[in-house]
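Field: sequence (string)
Field: structure_tokens (string)

Example rows 1 and 2, in order.
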Amino acid sequence: MNQKSLLFIEVPLFNNHKSDLLTIDHINMFTEKNIKNLFALAGFEIIKENISNRVPMQFIIKISSSSKTINLLKENPADILSQSQDYIDKVLKDVSGLKDKKLSVYGQNVVIDYLVDNNFIDINNITCMINDNPAYQGKNKWRNKIDVISFDEFISKKYTKDIFLSMNDVYHKNVKAKLSGYNLLGLFI
């Protein structure tokens, strides 16, 4: 990079993706504060940032032109890990005793893989997987077994009253509004 170069960086916001504790697909888990500290320590300044209640954080950075003192932002990693552990504990509590109960799954987050692979949920009891992305609906089967359907199809066919939310918890509030009258498992608001 030279002094005039700009670099666009997009990384998941760990605070909004608590299930990332169950994955190894990201070597580092970033919060707003720790990535800003990393930029500062590496000699970059942030030109523009987009941080919302959605999963990715976006930054445009450049090599810093100043030699000013770096003021690191304080945060307690134990608090962040504690929130993630609270989410995982809530999920495990919600699915305990579901072995023989039929349920639908909303979303395709890594959480459902973890729960099925570790025998918390029997794949044979999953009636369908709801996905809002038309690219997945009707064309694919999750694990070559479970139909991936639209929300409208789910509502019209009334699959089950129990729905496990397998999505980033930042989306739970919006989905909860659509699913009044259903038993939502893994809901974390």
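Row 2 begins here:
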Amino acid sequence: MSDDQDTQEQERQRTFSRNLRIARERAHLTQVDMAEAMTMSETVYARYESAKTWPSIGALLRLCQILNCSADWLLGLDDTPGPALSALPQEPLPVRRLRRQLRHAQPRTRRMVKLVLDELQERGRLAPPDDENRKKPRRLPPPDNDE
């Protein structure tokens, strides 16, 4: 590769990295959130944003799905990010933090939290998950009235 081609390649990678960071920030996501959504290490994702490596085609498509933007825009081939980046559905920050903490929790703790969330959902105090194929929540037994 000539010096001109190297420079062009570096500029394309910097454009991609900048656009990726912009899209992530507009979606109110952290690098940790993105790494989790992409099921990769935080280090690998950070390398995308620091222009140290390119994602695979599959990873690029997944980035576009998560960030609701076009590959052309991420790659700097189009000036329009795509359909409404600002209108992305967002989980509140405390929920994202809880998800991260639960990944490292004991299996018993995760089961207990799931039971509580299922019960809240069943009582209408929690919005249903997006996944329509989810199993029906188990019912918790009624509280004992031994008092």
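free_text_note (row 2): The chain has seven helices and no strands.
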